[in-house]
Amino acid sequence: MDGTIQRWMLMTHSTPDLKVLVSRKKKQVRAAFRQTCFERDGYACVMCTFQSTPARAEEELDAHHIADRTLMPNGGYVEENGISLCADCHHKAEIFHSTGHPQAGYSLEDLYEAIGSSYEKALGASARSS
């Protein structure tokens, strides 16, 4: 076997796949985002006050991106852009993302106000994150 091919095979089989590394990092960022939001919000839905627990939060709550993460630098995985919501409230918040028209009480401004944030604060925090 040619030495170049052997070196290539050694490199490709001993070096972690970049996609795997990126995927792991993304999972870590998402998990930290969820945990930060859940802790800040006391493991409760901010909109209806449904109370969860640390042990059940992953099944009972969602860490919702208030502004779509594709519109934020670095994906908007910052607490200034996240809010803990139960399934029913998450559905109400998602109506804006799918239709462009928020359900009453679930506009971006309403959600930001509920956590003491704003689009500008979220945008700045997201730009500073890495």
Word description of this protein:
The chain has 130 residues and is mainly alpha-helical. Helix content is 53%, strand content 6%. It has 6 helices and 2 strands. The model has no long low-confidence stretch (mean pLDDT 89).
Order of helices and strands: HHHEEHHH
* Sequence stretches where pLDDT stays below 50 over 5 or more residues: none
Radius of gyration: 19 Å
**Helix-strand makeup class:** mainly alpha
Overall average pLDDT = 89
Number of separate helices: 6
Descriptive keywords:
6 helices; 130 residues; mainly alpha
Short description:
With 130 residues, the chain is mainly alpha-helical.
How is the topology of this model organized?
Layout lengths: L2 H12 L3 H23 L16 H4 L1 E4 L16 E4 L1 H13 L8 H7 L4 H10 L2
Antiparallel strand pairs: 1-2
